[in-house]
Structure formats: structure tokens, C-alpha cells
Design a protein that fits this description.
Blueprint lengths: L7 H28 L9 H15 L6 E5 L2 E6 L1 H15 L1 H5 L6 H9 L2 H7 L4 E4 L15 E5 L2 E12 L6 E7 L9 E7 L5 E6 L10 E12 L3 E2 L8 H42 L16 H28 L5 H25 L1 H5 L5 H11 L6 H13 L8
Parallel strand pairs: 3-6
Antiparallel strand pairs: 1-2, 4-5, 5-9, 6-7, 7-10, 8-9
Helix pairs in contact: 1-3, 3-7, 3-8, 5-7, 7-8, 7-9, 7-11, 8-9, 9-11, 9-12
Length: about 400
């Protein structure tokens, strides 16, 4: 039997993070959008402490969450992944850029918690860790990474350039993807933890952006950047067979199976906020949702609202399923890409339609609609573009390799 209702524990998380979004994020949303990439907003520092306590509670007992029993059989576990998507949706209802700017909430943190050792989690888990994957010559194709890592005694030496690194300016540390041997392709790609104060890693620039303006997006330069030998995530060995190499790179890519559902939740929060503001504006014009009428008896505007609500709910259910699978140690690569593709596309479509339906009030800064529309676009791009998600889904459905379907 499928239960689509959130349990009491998760409802508490939803309510608490919604209060945070409504009481802290919304009131300062426009202010920090205008400031763009300055220092970390002071209002977020106490929020970081609260979120740290929430994460600690979520990962207690291995992050698996509380088990539910039906007739004595373990049926469900709602843990850190489910808590994460619920919290992210609510916070992004307030402001996505501010959510991404909370100290300790970087994508690098997700990588460390997913594959890091107990010592790495203890050392770096409480830091704000960014993730540096993209390069000038390696975007959607992560296997094309050319940043190098060479073991010299008890240190790794990294050289290369990274771009579009979210949190790269403010982060305490950065998880850098690099290759041990370019000739070996995917199998030689590993992740390395580099603290932000390392003299070998320099901030090249901070990007000016269309949306998520308070969240810094940086370009980083690594030149003979030396880090301790123990700062590699996972095994530093390069597999000696083709099958093992595929498995090794698959392990690196599994980070995305945990991070794509929260990115989908970002789109859900942004789209829901836009839809609620739109309903409020249209209500003043006498447009009231009447679910007792058939769709063909509704006005064009009412029909648009119903379609957006339906798409948003479908995306939400897909996102919750992907997170639940991660909490229950089920392979969720397909579902993670599906929810990210669906929610990101819906989020972008909903926010733009809301701007259109509200006319001048949508396009101007009278409401937050134009900002929500700007913020929504990058969600369809980062963490794997719409096109890449569809390619991953096709490969998994057809059970073919990346070489067979490009």
C-alpha cells in the first residue's frame, strides 16, 4: 500500500523550515538580490547553527532515519535524504539564493557525507564545502575533466582551472574533481578536498548572474596546489579492468543520485512560491479556482492554473520517491534524473507563465515574480542540464552504455 502523506516527524521539519523561509528569507530576498555576491548575509549565521543541528539529527544512526513497521516488517525509512528535499523545497519557497548561501550547506558537503570516511566527515562535515567540477573544456561531460592530481610523497598536487563553482568564494573548502591519468578516462577521476585557505588555490573571479545573485559562483585556479594524502574522497586506486573502471566512475557519479533530488526540490519551492503569488494577484481580479467545474468549463486563466498545479504535484511525488529510495539504499539513478528533469522544466515553465498571467505586476518588481523567474532558469542547467538528464534516463531505460548512446 502506498502512503503519500508525510509522517509527523517530516511535517515538523516542513513547518519549521517554512517558518524560516517566511520569517527570514522572504523579507530580505529583494535586498540581497540587489546587493548580489557580497559577504555571507549576517541573517544566515544563526540559521547555519539551526541547520547543523537538524543535519546532525538526520544522520544519527547512519542517516537511515526511523524505520516504520507494518505487521512486524520493516517497510519504510525516512532519513536525511527525505528530510533534505522537504527542507530545501520550503526554504526555496522563501529564496533559493539565500538557501544556497547558508554556511555548511554546499554541494561539497553532500559529496563528503555520501562517500567520505568517518574522519573526513568529522573534519570537513561542519564546514561550508563547495563542489568544483566544471572546467572551460568540460561541462556536461564530467569524464572530460583535465585538472590533474599527482601523488608526491604524502601529498597530492593539483593543477587546473575550475569554473561555475557555487560557493567557491565563500566556502571553507572545495571538493575538486581531478584526473590521476587522462589516458584512462573516467576511471581515473577522483574527488579531492581542498581547504579554501590553501595558497595553491586562488579565486580567479566571481560571476555576475541573471538569477541566484546572492549565491556566489566562482572561477578557481589551482597551481601546484598541495593537499594531504588523506584528502581524497573514496579510493585513490585506479581499477585495472574495464568493468572495475566503470564501477569506479559510477561510484563517483553516485554523488549526483543524492544531490539531484534536492535540486529538484529547489525548483518545486520556486514554482510553488510563484503560483501562490499569482493566485493572490488573480484573486483580486476575481479569478477564483473552482475545482467543482470540469476543465472545459473553466476560463483560460483558470485552466492554466490547474495545469500548473498538476505538473507541480507530479514533480513533487517523483522527487519524494527518489529521496525515499536513497534513504532505503535502493539504486535511484534513473529516478534522481527523472525528478530533476521534470521538476526543473516545470519550475521554469510555471514561473514564466506566472509572470505572463500577471502582466505588469509579474514583469515589474511590484512582486517577487520576476525574480523567481530569473532564479528558476539555472535550476534547469546546473547539476546536469535538462538534455543530460534525458540522456541518462534514456540510457538507463534502454540499458545501454554512454558509448552506445551519446
Amino acid at each position: 500500500m502506498i502512503n503519500l502523506e508525510l509522517p509527523h516527524k517530516l511535517l515538523s521539519v516542513k513547518q519549521m523550515t517554512h517558518q524560516l523561509a517566511a520569517g527570514v528569507f522572504r523579507p530580505i530576498s529583494r535586498k540581497y538580490d540587489d546587493i548580489e555576491h557580497g559577504d555571507t548575509p549576517q541573517e544566515l549565521k544563526p540559521v547555519a547553527q539551526m541547520m547543523g543541528a537538524m543535519r546532525a539529527a538526520a544522520v544519527n544512526g547512519g542517516g537511515k532515519g526511523k524505520e516504520a513497521l507494518i505487521d512486524g516488517v520493516v517497510t519504510v525509512k525516512n532519513g536525511s535524504n527525505m528530510i533534505g528535499v522537504i527542507a530545501v523545497e520550503e526554504m526555496c519557497w522563501g529564496d533559493t539564493g539565500l538557501m544556497l548561501s547558508i554556511p555548511g550547506s554546499g554541494l561539497g558537503n553532500a559529496a563528503i557525507m555520501a562517500v567520505g570516511t568517518a574522519e573526513q566527515k568529522e573534519t570537513f562535515g561542519k564546514m561550508y564545502c563547495a563542489m568544483a567540477i566544471t572546467e572551460p573544456g568540460a561541462g556536461s561531460d564530467s569524464a572530460a575533466i583535465s585538472t590533474t592530481a599527482e601523488l608526491c610523497g604524502d601529498e597530492w598536487v593539483l593543477n587546473g582551472e575550475k569554473i561555475f563553482c557555487t560557493g567557491g568564494q565563500r566556502g571553507d573548502a572545495v571538493v575538486v574533481w581531478a584526473t590521476l591519468d587522462k589516458r584512462l578516462g573516467k576511471a581515473a577521476i577522483k574527488s579531492f578536498i581542498v581547504t579554501r585557505d590553501n595558497p595553491g588555490m586562488k579565486l580567479a573571479r566571481v560571476e555576475d548572474k541573471m538569477g541566484l545573485r546572492i549565491s556566489d559562483t566562482a572561477a578557481l585556479s589551482l597551481e601546484n596546489c598541495r593537499i594531504p594524502k588523506g584528502n581524497v574522497l573514496g579510493s585513490a586506486e585506479v581499477a585495472d579492468t574495464e568493468e572495475a573502471r566503470k564501477k569506479a566512475f559510477g561510484g563517483v557519479m553516485q554523488t549526483f543520485d543524492n544531490t539531484r533530488p534536492p535540486v529538484a526540490a529547489m525548483a518545486l519551492g520556486v514554482a510553488r512560491a510563484a503560483l501562490e503569488i499569482t493566485r493572490s494577484i488573480l484573486l483580486k481580479e476575481g479569478v477564483v479556482a473552482d475545482y467543482s467545474k470540469p476543465l472545459y468549463c473553466s476560463t483560460a486563466v483558470e485552466a492554466e492554473l490547474y495545469r500548473m498545479e498538476a505538473d507541480l504535484e507530479a514533480a513533487r511525488l517523483m522527487t519524494l520517491k527518489a529521496a525515499w529510495m536513497a534513504d532505503n539504499a535502493q539504486a535511484n539513478s534513473k529516478e534522481a534524473s527523472m525528478c530533476k528533469a521534470k521538476a526543473a522544466r516545470v519550475g521554469n515553465a510555471v514561473t514564466l507563465k506566472c509572470v505572463e498571467l500577471c502582466g505588469e505586476q509579474g514583469f515589474s518588481q511590484v512582486s517577487l515574480l520576476e525574480k523567481l523567474a530569473r532564479d528558476s532558469k539555472v535550476i534547469d542547467i546546473f547539476e546536469g542540464t535538462q538534455q543530460i538528464q534525458q540522456l541518462i534516463i534514456a540510457r538507463l531505460l534502454l540499458q545501454v552504455s554512454s558509448k552506445e548512446l551519446k
